[in-house]
Predict the 3D structure of the following.
Amino acid sequence: MRILVVNPNTSEEMGKGIDIAAKRYANPGTEIVTVCSRIGPLSIESAYEETLAGQGVLERIIEGNKKKFDAIIIACFDDPHLSAARQISEVPVYGIAESAIYMASSLGYKFSIISLLERMLPAVEELVNKIGLNSRCASIKMVEIAALNTKNDQNSTIKALMESARMAIKEDGAEVIILGCAGLTSLDKPMEKELGIPVLDGVVCAVKTAEAIFGYGLKMSKIKAFKKPEPKKFVGLHYF
Amino acid sequence: MRILVVNPNTSEEMGKGIDIAAKRYANPGTEIVTVCSRIGPLSIESAYEETLAGQGVLERIIEGNKKKFDAIIIACFDDPHLSAARQISEVPVYGIAESAIYMASSLGYKFSIISLLERMLPAVEELVNKIGLNSRCASIKMVEIAALNTKNDQNSTIKALMESARMAIKEDGAEVIILGCAGLTSLDKPMEKELGIPVLDGVVCAVKTAEAIFGYGLKMSKIKAFKKPEPKKFVGLHYF
Amino acid sequence: MRILVVNPNTSEEMGKGIDIAAKRYANPGTEIVTVCSRIGPLSIESAYEETLAGQGVLERIIEGNKKKFDAIIIACFDDPHLSAARQISEVPVYGIAESAIYMASSLGYKFSIISLLERMLPAVEELVNKIGLNSRCASIKMVEIAALNTKNDQNSTIKALMESARMAIKEDGAEVIILGCAGLTSLDKPMEKELGIPVLDGVVCAVKTAEAIFGYGLKMSKIKAFKKPEPKKFVGLHYF
Amino acid sequence: MRILVVNPNTSEEMGKGIDIAAKRYANPGTEIVTVCSRIGPLSIESAYEETLAGQGVLERIIEGNKKKFDAIIIACFDDPHLSAARQISEVPVYGIAESAIYMASSLGYKFSIISLLERMLPAVEELVNKIGLNSRCASIKMVEIAALNTKNDQNSTIKALMESARMAIKEDGAEVIILGCAGLTSLDKPMEKELGIPVLDGVVCAVKTAEAIFGYGLKMSKIKAFKKPEPKKFVGLHYF
Amino acid sequence: MRILVVNPNTSEEMGKGIDIAAKRYANPGTEIVTVCSRIGPLSIESAYEETLAGQGVLERIIEGNKKKFDAIIIACFDDPHLSAARQISEVPVYGIAESAIYMASSLGYKFSIISLLERMLPAVEELVNKIGLNSRCASIKMVEIAALNTKNDQNSTIKALMESARMAIKEDGAEVIILGCAGLTSLDKPMEKELGIPVLDGVVCAVKTAEAIFGYGLKMSKIKAFKKPEPKKFVGLHYF
Amino acid sequence: MRILVVNPNTSEEMGKGIDIAAKRYANPGTEIVTVCSRIGPLSIESAYEETLAGQGVLERIIEGNKKKFDAIIIACFDDPHLSAARQISEVPVYGIAESAIYMASSLGYKFSIISLLERMLPAVEELVNKIGLNSRCASIKMVEIAALNTKNDQNSTIKALMESARMAIKEDGAEVIILGCAGLTSLDKPMEKELGIPVLDGVVCAVKTAEAIFGYGLKMSKIKAFKKPEPKKFVGLHYF
């Protein structure tokens, strides 16, 4: 199968990390193509940037459909514009938070999410509520590092994530850790080794979910929430 | 006080209706200015269109702040891009769904929302859950008419809305009706007269809420969910 | 418009504080009249005292309707006898907790309530659940000072409130503070100044809500939860 | 043991029915004394009447403690003033709704409540939420007959109740029926016989619960929610 | 009445403790017979052992029905196989967790459960959710002692339980303590004396609940959740 | 990878159907071995039969671990003994309900479950609550056909399922259908074709989930809910 992975920001560097992550555990027959948005913010760390990432994401979704990909992944932990993408797409679109949360819930009773920047906590909490698994969420913990700095300062990033994860296990009852940012994607296995419990990177989870659902021959339901929008006039937006 | 009302689509006609609604019950000292998005869809009837309305809305929010408005209203019942707008704004931003739902909950134990297009039902349900008052929501009922056609075909619009409202009262226990679309804004009082219970138009609710909160000298909390985004590089987006 | 503010206890001193609070931010055209219950407890700090405040409150509600007030506020944070008052009243009746909680939820994602006396915590928790916004409530914190002593010992009152508020912000994620007692009504703005986030006094919130809803020409729904009681024989109760 | 049953209204006739119900299934060693409120409404069918029943109920609670009863029951399905009574009482106080709901939940997965007057539905729904077993409540159904008329018109009362119960079983999945009014107390066994599932009268449930808890030597927790109120000045209320 | 108490493990020693507990507060006319499972694990401290206790429990339930007991109690805090037992039984079957949780909720606003072994916490949390009273549960606290060791090391058991109970009261707002293990059954009154709040042993709660419901002449609802299974072929299982 | 599929009943015929289903969409490199329980009921259609299926299931789980399978699936829609199996297993164990519910939630906003026998409805409702996605469940519909008869009477089975599915779509808002019985496993694609929305068979969902998680190199979390039980004495149970 062919999966298009859309990095919804315009950082080529982050796109490369996501591409590596997406390919790491893909099935032999799975072709992964990773693209970044052509327009929009360099990273998404607020609702404001998420909104402004929308046009860039949807362009890539439409292209992915034209190029006959079998599935599309939006590789940012807020699952930005997932409903919009699913409406405009004929092929399944996956969010990395949704995929990670479902997968985590098969591996332990409670999961914790370790993500970046305290200011994003309300958004992550709303996302978990929307997905519907708040009863299985032990805690959401934020580490105060900007996504684009996680590579530069990898040691202190790992150290801070490990400290949060250990607290989540000890105090909140976490049995599975979800890394809540597409910029942390390479840290799953090193952390898993030290913690002794599953550590999930949402990009991989989404690739494996896409393969699983494709393997079963399933498509998205297009009758209601993800129904194709009627043709409509757009003013001043290229491509639309 | 000065309130900027942003019609987040590019339909001047809908903008005019919103402007009339917003001014109808404004306090004498309240100056209302209504603008439409310069770019984006002609109406918002899907998550897809909501996403593509984002840039146009945020431009208007930023302008509203530059022009020293005291409050800003996003006049579409999905409260599109409300969190993003609140982050980028120094002055309070209000959604018409949120305002209507809070106001309704002071006037009866259960409210029902009558909105347009069955396909939007999941989005409205998610919105009520996010606002947090699902326990007070008797039902959400959708009438199968496109927003832009409500004026053309006003008689059948009213008839369909009244039928839904009466069912909501009789079968679901609704005590207050919320009109779930900025295109239905003039129908509140005629329906209220016939039904004998409060019928709320969210545009008016938001104006009155903005005045109330301004009158108390309150500002938004800017420390977490609505914290100002850090400066960031944007690629290919004018204004940002 | 004319608003009757009912202090549901018999403390004239607390009534004066409430009157000042209610008038502070009222619109120019709003006439505020504050009365205390003629019979009942000197303050309400238990369900027991709340029950015994009932008759006094309802007498004032009935008088308020006879004297053609446009709205009535019950100025105690438990919103005592609010449903009863709404049933017997033709004009809208507002609780200060309900009004503050709705207003807070427009200004931040999570609010905390700082109130008095640990023994009241279950009642406040039940109230928030009943209003329906428990998902937006970061925490309820109680300071161990009796309502009637808050004036005598204002310094230690403020100190204790500030400490609780700071903990609510830091540990619980509070973005807005609600002062959960009609005896704390003057402390909103001093605390707001220091904390840098909105601090809401319910009395003001209720006045502004009453004005907003009156300005929209809305009445309460009288068809079900707040339906007028049938005439009925009462034994041994004056006025009823 | 000695149980005081308080009919919180002033209807001697309803008091007699409650007394019979309370004694029907009491243990041989249980002495039941039933009293009506001396002051207050003739029946409680609104929040307004509930409020005005408060003083009469609390007088009886205080008397019950002075006369060394071992437990007290408030025999009205809204559990009116239960928290207040528990605060002022040293001995356990039981509500008939609470007792019936807990007992029902041991006998089937889902229960339905059949009560009187549509206008009371919001109050019953709030009560079930407050007790916390809304997840076990299949439905709440209201029959449009006033409590004081149930005796006069017993045939049509039974017919209406049976119809509601059968619908609750068939459509809502009810496995246990709770009669939601102290005026229906004699109908449990006749209905049970016809329906073939448990039909619970709350008065009996409360008596049996009181005996069970007394038999275990348990008292109420008096440290927080039901903590004894501090002495306080009351204005214009006899007895307090 | 005659109650069969089934210790669902094969520890005769634990069976004896349960028997003493069950008889302690039984009514004079109540005959208690306690039996242990003939086959199965020596104690139940995991879902694995719970599953393997199933056959032994059901044998005893079937025997209890043949021997015309009036009610049956499964005396293990996980309420193991309660639904199965209720389906195969004509007479009511009670779980000790369910009984304790309902009884606790009549005595205080919030209860805490003190049980054994951290690994069981998810199971207890799921049980409280299933029973439906999670909103009344202040906390679940686990003490790291194996059930079979509680007698050997009674001093350190009591000390650890008291410490957990005090923390539950102080930090979590517990007003009632439930002892979450049939091996702790004798510690209720000693702990109650020291803590000054009700401490409930589920075995006693179930006996008192069984007596209460029997005294009202009630049976289980057998129409849906607890409907008798159809006859079916079993392979390789004695007794079935 | 090698997956052991355990049919938890003793019906070889149902085992064959499950085996076919499990192999239908498996990856080329996946070896599927399906076994039935050696002891236990011929089908599981009650909690009673579920309990008695326990020993047979756990034997197969233990064998599966000894024989070095990479994952194990329990192929019955109640996910019977899933926690127990996970505790005793080193390799991941999957339930078919859990897998189907997570997969469905990626393909539409709301799913409905169509299962067999009205008496099982409470169990399925409890299961959905336990999994945590009740907010995404549009409805649970039961068709009154015994599992072992679905093959004999395939036409009327399909007809009844299709009718339920169409009602779920039209009245409840279902966008995805889950077939809630391992005996319905071959009907997914025929129904999908007619309904035009995804129809999921849990057996396939579990196989695809097992492959996905194996492909990512993940194991279960063994630190708390699924921690390995301590060695313990069992009386009278072979194998344990």
Q: What stands out?
A: The interface with chain F takes residues 121-122, 129 of chain B (CB under 8 Å). The mean pLDDT of chain B is 96.
